[in-house]
Amino acid sequence: MAEPVKLQFTAPKHGMPEKHFADYTEDQRVELLGEMGLPKFRANQIAKHYYQRYEADPSTMSDLPAAARTEVAEKMFPVLMDPVREHATDDGHTTKALWRLNDGTLLESVLMRYPERATLCISSQAGCGMNCPFCATGQSGLDRNLSMGEMVEQVRHAAATMHAEGGRLSNVVFMGMGEPMANYKRMISTVRQITSPAPHGFGISARNVTVSTVGLAPQIRLLADEGIPVTLAISLHTPDDELRDTLVPINTRFSVEEVLDAAKYYVEKTGRRVSIEYALIRDINDQDFRADMLGRKLRQALGHLVHVNLIPLNPTPGSQWDAAPKERQDEFVRRVRAQGVTCTVRDTKGQEIAAACGQLAAEENAVG
């Protein structure tokens, strides 16, 4: 098995935050509480507050000794994220939150409410080092990886919001700012905290968690071996290496063939269908021959366990890139389906609130 590739595209501008409850293993929590003079069972008690009641303020944990609450708060629950602003659209069903981290770094998360589910799109990095030219986050560069605490806290905040509304957070997608696979160890620990039953995690079904990647083949294989049946989404955007080297620069290290081989391994290990993300860009990757090639390559590599998720491009301000027209989109879908591959167009929620990842942060930085 190949080792995961360590990726260093841009030197991070900031250091990691203080350690949070979600950053510690269960044994480490017990040890830290022991240093405070608290017995082992308190760790489980606090975990129930955090993962079941979505509480991160020990002053509200009434079954915790009053004398211990301040020290527990200081040592285990630093405030990692402060809200900067929130935008709502779709009659309030979609809300995008911009958060400021302790070092001034900005990150975004999007909560999308549907009749049958509530989906949270979280960020795994502040910024992104993949440098895809049509992506707002890619244009901003990489600030740093997010900690487990910062990722888990995005989930807790959204779960608390849904609970307060009388609903439940049912789905989490790692499709916000950053490349999740480039922050692999923290990402997979976050996935375990999302999917483990309480009091070890939020108890969200692994099948309702999606991990997106631009195609880091060794990490895709690692994910396949984790034994967690999450949905794998690969941002392919074109089926040929010549164009993909430009649209997704990491392709110069992991070719389309290597990425699809890794996806095939994932399908064989998990039995899960892989989602192929394809941002349709006018006159760039929307040609008939690319639709035919995409369908053919996917069918050959993955058989019926693949689904193409066509994404109408949400152009960033001042960008040279534009969405393909509707008739081109429809023909592209038809041609992919003609190759025997399922293909649908993504519901583009929240476009009017700069919901393409990185746009809200870019606007805030421009103002600031």
From TrEMBL:
Residues annotated as binding [4Fe-4S] cluster: C128, C132, C135
Alphabetical list of NCBIfam families matching this protein: rRNA_mod_RlmN
Biological processes annotated in GO: methylation
Name this protein carries in UniProt: Probable dual-specificity RNA methyltransferase RlmN
Entry keywords, A to Z: 4Fe-4S, Cytoplasm, Disulfide bond, Iron, Iron-sulfur, Metal-binding, Methyltransferase, rRNA processing, S-adenosyl-L-methionine, Transferase, tRNA processing
Gene that this polypeptide is encoded by: rlmN
Further remarks about this protein from its record: Reaction proceeds by a ping-pong mechanism involving intermediate methylation of a conserved cysteine residue.
Active site, renumbered: E108, C357
Binding positions (S-adenosyl-L-methionine): G178, E179, S212, S235, L236, H237, N314
